[in-house]
Each structure stands twice: as structure tokens, then as C-alpha cells.
Amino acid sequence: MAFPLFSKNKKALLDRCRDDYATKMRLKYAPFYHAIEEQKGTSIRLNGRDMVMLSSNDYLGFSFHPKVIEAGRAAMLKWGTSTTGARTSNGSRAYHVELEQKLATFLGREACHVHAAGYLSCLSSVASFAQKGDVILADKNIHSCLWDGIRLSMATVERFSHNNPVDLREVAASVESRAPKMLIIEGVYSMEGHIARLPDMMAVADEYGCFTVLDDAHGFGVLGRQGRGTVDHFGLNDKVDVVCGSLSKSLASTGGFVAASREVIEYLRTNSKQTIFSAALSPGQAACAQTSLELMQTEPEHLDRLWKNTKRYREMLKGLGLDTWGSETPAVPIVLGSKEVVYRFWQALMEKGVFTVMSIAPAVPPGKDLIRTAISAMHTEEQLERIAEAMAYAVKKI
Ligand SMILES: Cc1ncc(COP(=O)(O)O)c(C=O)c1O
């Protein structure tokens, strides 16, 4: 048995945790992990102060809709709190099948599969289909869950410059022509607020025989008829093979979905480790998502208000000379270029009662350090006024 004196300090991984620079900086400046004490829609209470939430992805504002809350409550009374098992074993319920059918119909797809997180759905949309020997063509700005899916797939990956079909074509032409190919893009890029240049991208995908996966976490509920998403916005439903997304944004729940043809979804159900080895979506979350989906089709005023608020907000930022990276959607970054300026701007907004989130390199490209903001249909006139005052104040502080 090792003498305790010699085994002391031998755990290199414990040293790594203790000495990590990023963790030390996070704890010193405390920009993340703020535990909100109270919330009512876009009004929150933090450190005893009333603030406006300007960084939530509750685009349609359904998280406090009485019908959504009631549906979650009723589902828990009927089904209990959790499935406590994977879909393949004891975790499958009639409400999963119902939600999947409703999502598939809404998206004009044959089938759909839901997971307990959007992260799992999107990761699974890549890792279940691509394998060693395949070539993945990936927009360099895709979400972390898609990169994780790429890593798990063991396929070869080639990046192309963000939202650039010309570069995509060049990269597609340069890879082994016989290898099976997958194209991965987002419908709306969450960090930048850009809409995918889908018609041009799909022309390349068609030419090179790419199986296309589109993550529409931020396009679903926001673009297209009744919020059917980016593919519907461009009328290209027959071109994209897999649409994945999150239930945690416009659908005001937590969880994720993958929608595709029946044969593609059945293949995923056989091969997705994220499906086979992870507990199924809980009853309350499924019910909240399903009711939000119904509201998208019966109460169009939320989508109208989202875009009205977005237009007003963008004009406000433009008037102050702020760089919004050409955002075209309610996800609006404020690019400030360095982490020091971002920190000062963020602090000034906090001081004035507006809650936002910082994003600094390496999470964003160098020189693109930014504040992440997102507009909701729930933001009121008074809140938009308060945001305008806070932005003007923050601009003076940098
Ligand atoms: C583009 C994109 N895909 C997937 C996800 C993961 O979704 P969830 O938060 O539901 O796990 C997110 C969430 O931030 C996202 O922005």
C-alpha cells in the first residue's frame, strides 16, 4: 500500500481544477451563474433588485402563459414527475408519440423524435448518421452540440466560412468525391442572429449529394408560417434531410426534437446513443411544449409582437451606433470587440437594471467579443424604454 506522504498531490487532475485560469477569472468577476431570485416573464429579481431580462430565448413569451403552466401541472398530476427510463426500455409514453406527431405535422415531416434536451437532439442528429469514412462539411460557427456530434461520429470534418455558400462549394469540391457527405448548418445562428443562406447552401448540397442537418433551435417559432422555422421561411422543406431543434426556446419548455422522413427517424431510434441510454422527456416538459405548439397556431399575436419588439430594439441600437453583427432576427448581439469593453458595458447595463450575458473569445472569434441579447414578445413598452435608457448609459461608459 502506498505511503500517504508519497501519494499526496499526485492527482494532476485535481491540480488542473485548482489552477484553472478561466475558473479563477470567472469567480473573480462573477459574470455567469447568477441565481435569479424571482421571475415573472421578462421581469426578474436579482440581488434584491428588480431587473429586465434581455437574454432569454423565450422568444414568444410562453413560459408564463397560463395555458402552458396549466398543461404542465395537469400532465404531472396524470403521469407523475418523470419517466425514469429511456424510450427503448420503460420510458416511452403515449404523450411522447402525440407530441412527436404534432411536431412532425407542423413541420411538414413524416416523423419526429424528442429528447430530454435540445443538446441531445442536435448532437444525435449528427452522431447517429455520420460515421468513420464520411466527410462532414460544417459551418465554422455552428453550436457546440453539433461539434460534439461530429467528434463522436469519427467522421472527417471540413469547415467552411460562416454562412458562405461560395466557400462551401470550394470545400465540397476539394474532398474525396466518393465519400458519403453530410452538411451541417443552423437555420438562425444564435450568436450572430444571422439567417442561413439556405437556397444557395442547398444548391451546393444537391450538387454534391450532401445529407443535410439543420439546427433550427433559434429559427423555430421565429421564422416561417406560424413559426415553422427557417426551412419553411425559404419554402425548402423537401431539400433539408433533418431538422433538429430545442423545446427550450420558443416552446418554453426543456427538451429537443429531430424531424425527418420516417425511415431516417427509425434509423435514429435504432442508432442514437442519446436516445437509447438517456431518460425520456418528462411529462410536464412535454405538455408545456405541446401547448406552446398549439398556441403558435391559435394565437398569432405573440409572433407579431416578437417582430414588432425586435424592429424597435434594433432601431434603438442602430440609433446609438452599436454594431449588431448584421443580426436579422430577435437574437441580437452587441459586438464591442474586446473583453474589457464588454465587461464595462455589461456592468453598466446591470447597474441600470438590464440583465444580459457576455460572450468573449474563444467563445467568439477574436475581436468579436460581444453582449448577447434576445428580444421576447413579452417585453413591454416600459421595459423597452428602460432598456433604451440603459443602453444609452452603457454607451457613455465605454
Ligand atoms: C443552436 C443551438 N442548438 C442547440 C441548443 C441546445 O438546446 P438546449 O438548450 O435545449 O439543450 C442550443 C441552445 O443553446 C442552441 O443555441
Describe this structure in words.
The protein has 398 residues and is an alpha/beta fold. It has 2 domains: 36-59 and 300-397, Aspartate Aminotransferase, domain 1, CATH 3.90.1150.10; 65-298, Type I PLP-dependent aspartate aminotransferase-like (Major domain) (Aspartate Aminotransferase, domain 2, 3-Layer(aba) Sandwich), CATH 3.40.640.10. It has 16 helices and 14 strands. The strands form 3 sheets. The protein has a 7-stranded mixed sheet with strand order 4-10-9-8-7-5-6, sandwiched between helices. The chain has a 4-stranded mixed sheet with strand order 1-2-3-12. Strands 11-14-13 form a 3-stranded antiparallel sheet, covered by helices on one side. Helix 5 (94-107) packs parallel to helix 13 (283-298) and helix 6 (118-127) runs parallel beside helix 7. The radius of gyration is 22 Å and the shape is globular.
